[in-house]
From TrEMBL:
Keywords: DNA-binding, Transcription, Transcription regulation
Name this polypeptide is given: Helix-turn-helix domain-containing protein
Pfam families: DUF6597 (PF20240), HTH_18 (PF12833)
Keyword Hydrolase in annotation: no
Lineage: Bacteria, Pseudomonadati, Bacteroidota, Cytophagia, Cytophagales
Source superkingdom: Bacteria
Keyword Heme: no
The species this protein was found in: Spirosoma liriopis
Matching InterPro entries: AraC_XylS_family_regulators (IPR050204), DUF6597 (IPR046532), HTH_AraC (IPR018060)
């Protein structure tokens, strides 16, 4: 948490009844005299609901840039996100876990994105949450906003069904590079592999293959951060995380971050990049 006079950042846990669907709630406030902050967030393949009460916030992925004025939906985030926090900023971000956003809106995640958004996983300026934004805006304190937000989510969140359970229980299988998690889930649930793939697209908005590739990359990056500032043993990282060779690993850096491994380490050293911590399921 940054608690100087210019900026306050907090990561808050949701109501304990929401821990299967919400990873955390990120809040940031800046004074009117604070400088503009440039931030970067590593992809996390989760859906995020942004509720902005201050000046417009600029967000960009690759060559695409958007302006978030009030409420916005972002995800599943599959590339490095760059965003600007201006003076007088006041923002809350609900970070959903796995299929949490699907359980809130009740619509297949892959159907919510336009064809133009499919590669970058963005869907901004959504009016679905306009009423929630107005109610939160009227709250006098962060504690009141948090209470209202928890109440809203508890009221509208659908209970876990068989699809949800198969996703939650199956994601741990992705840690084992020696098995095909889709086949294991299909056999356990007595489903076809096609049905399992469809459940991932519906619940998460990505295929199981995409998720497996990302989770491998995230584990590798987490290890890099844990070992920092020691020099990475790239050969060992390639072997442990199941990459074919170092070129294979470099391609994942370019795919998810648009950076080379060396550029990533440079930004890590300058603390210019934010990485979500491991959650309840991964």
């Amino acid at each position: 948490m940054n608690t100087d006079d210019a900026s306050i950042e907090q990561v808050l846990l949701p109501d304990e009844r929401l821990t299967d669907v919400v990873r955390h709630i990120y809040c940031i406030r800046q004074s009117a005299q604070a400088p503009t902050i440039q931030k970067q967030l590593v992809p996390n393949y989760e859906m995020m609901l942004i509720v902005n009460f201050g000046p417009a916030i600029t967000a960009s992925v690759a060559d695409y840039t958007w302006v978030v004025e009030r409420s916005a939906v972002l995800g599943p985030l599959n590339k490095l996100l760059r965003y600007t926090v201006p003076p007088d900023a006041d923002m809350m971000v609900v970070v959903f876990t796995l299929n949490g956003f699907y359980r809130l809106v009740g619509q297949p995640i892959h159907s919510l994105r336009s064809e133009a958004d499919a590669d970058i996983g963005m869907r901004l300026n959504d009016e679905t949450f306009a009423e929630l934004w107005a109610q939160l805006k009227a709250m006098p304190s962060l504690a009141d906003r948090l209470d209202l937000l928890n109440a809203y989510l508890l009221l509208h969140m659908a209970p876990a069904d068989e699809d949800s359970l198969s996703i939650l229980e199956g994601v741990v299988l992705f840690d084992n590079v020696a098995i095909d998690p889709v086949k294991v889930i299909a056999e356990t649930r007595q489903l076809s592999t096609r049905s399992v793939q469809l459940r991932f697209q519906t619940n998460l908005g990505v295929s199981a293959k995409e998720l497996a590739r990302f989770l491998r990359f995230k584990k590798m990056v987490t290890e890099l951060i844990t070992q920092y500032p020691a020099s990475p043993d790239w050969a060992n990282l390639v072997f442990v995380h199941g990459y074919h060779d170092q070129s294979h690993l470099i391609r994942d850096f370019q795919q998810f971050m648009g950076l080379s491994p060396t550029e990533f380490l440079q930004q890590l050293a300058s603390q210019e990049i934010c990485i979500s911590q491991p959650g309840k399921y991964y």
